[in-house]
Amino acid sequence: MNAIDFAAALADWYRLNARELPWRKTRDAYHIWLSEVMLQQTQVTTVRPYYRKFLQLWPTISDLAAADISSVMKAWEGLGYYARCRNLHAAANQIVQEHGGVFPRKIEDVIALRGIGRSTAGAILTFAYAQRHPLLDANVKRVLTRLYDEDGIVTKAAVERRLWHWSQTLLDGAADPWTHNQAMMELGATLCAPKKPNCPRCPVKIECLAHAHGTQRERPQKKKRKPIPHKHIGVGVIRCPDDPRKVLVQLRPPEGLLGGLWEFPGGKQEPDETIERTIARELREELDIEVTVQHHICDVQHAYSHFKVTLHTYWCRLDSGTPRARVAVEWKWVPIHELTHLAFPKANRAILEELIDEA
Ligand code: SF4
């Protein structure tokens, strides 16, 4: 493959076909960093309103660093993969403390920030500071495995090394790294789509080995996925004995799945256990209380990347004990109409809507 011809054909196509995206009109490293983090595993249409909202709420890195993490999590609510949000806030604080609030320019300093890997660092430095760094995000990986008809499994280290090498080789042929990197991402996000690549319209089809071999749809090779487990979760909504307009919610620990979000207590159903028993047991284990499980509120289905859940949700009456957060960071009684002020995972939000309708 001639890298100069390749890059020229790709850049010409990009100039005529690129989508207008707000983060492509700026050279502000903070704005670009925000967009890059939000776009990880998330569609452009989903990201747009969040990107706008964050910049309105926190126009500078220092504003974001000074914000309370709970308000940042609340603003992120619904965007998913919440570790990104916690890392963003932590990295903003790192930038304030270590770089005077100015986004760093050296790649090693950027990679040292929480939640930023080599590809994201390369993207920010290319798009903000016109530096020349290869990228390897999910879209670029797919394009490269097809261009070179790579049949190894993409998560293998040796395959990843080859992909970085090809990313660098093609970038070396480009006159303008900003356009080249944007164009590689754009090609992956539009024509070189995961399931149905639009090869007839592709500007680099004559260079593409997978197209020549008819193997586009088999690239990238992925490990065979195990069947996705389905967990049944019993969830208890406990009314406050002193004020029945309030219910109990607890704050998940900062690390791990859905870390730093509020939730209704509960947990996984064991084999041969009724869901009512699950709820009573989980609330005993998590909060050190005894409850009577009362009537059913709703069942909520939700799919995460590696498993699916059904949240079987019931009203509960507190019979004895004073709640004690054994697993959560804290718990509190909150009026139902004020629950929307807290950041909840998407599946819990569906419960919350049921409660507001019932109230
Ligand atoms: S020819 Fe098809 S498979 Fe190859 S890069 Fe273009 S869109 Fe992707």
Short overview:
The protein is of the alpha+beta class and 359 residues long.
Question: What structural keywords apply?
Answer:
359 residues; Endonuclease III, domain 1; four-stranded mixed sheet; binds iron/sulfur cluster; elongated; Nucleoside Triphosphate Pyrophosphohydrolase; three-stranded antiparallel sheet; alpha+beta; 2 domains
What does this structure look like?
This protein has 14 helices and 7 strands. The protein folds into 2 domains: 3-218, Orthogonal Bundle (Endonuclease III, domain 1); 230-358, Nucleoside Triphosphate Pyrophosphohydrolase (Alpha-Beta Complex). It starts with a helix and ends with a helix. A hairpin with a 4-residue loop joins strand 5 (290-303) and strand 6 (308-320). It has a 4-stranded mixed sheet, sandwiched between helices. Strands 3-2-7 form a 3-stranded antiparallel sheet, with no helix packed on it. The chain has helices at residues 3-17, 29-39, 44-57, 61-66, 69-76, 83-99, 107-111, 118-129, 138-147, 157-172, 177-189, 209-213, 275-287, 346-358; strands spanning 230-238, 246-251, 262-263, 266-268, 290-303, 308-320, 330-335. It is α+β, with helices and mostly antiparallel strands. The model has no long low-confidence stretch (mean pLDDT 95). Helix 1 packs across helix 11. Iron/sulfur cluster binds at residues 143, 146-147, 191-192, 197, 199, 202, 204-205, 208, 210-211, 216.
